[in-house]
Write a structure and sequence with these properties.
mainly alpha; transmembrane; transmembrane helix; 2 helices; membrane
């Protein structure tokens, strides 16, 4: 499946709009990855 919105955003939106579980799983995984990156960056002092 290809989307003109970009890789991550296109996958997320097209999956959710189609009502597919994979879209919701992808969104949850993206959120968890962003949260883990922020937590780890702040913990190690790389992000203030």
């Amino acid at each position: 499946m290809q989307s003109g919105l970009g890789c991550s955003v296109g996958t997320l939106l097209s999956g959710i709009m189609a009502g597919a579980v994979s879209g919701w799983v992808f969104g949850a995984t993206m959120f968890a990855g962003a949260a883990a990156t922020l937590w780890l960056g702040r913990r190690t002092g790389l992000l203030s």
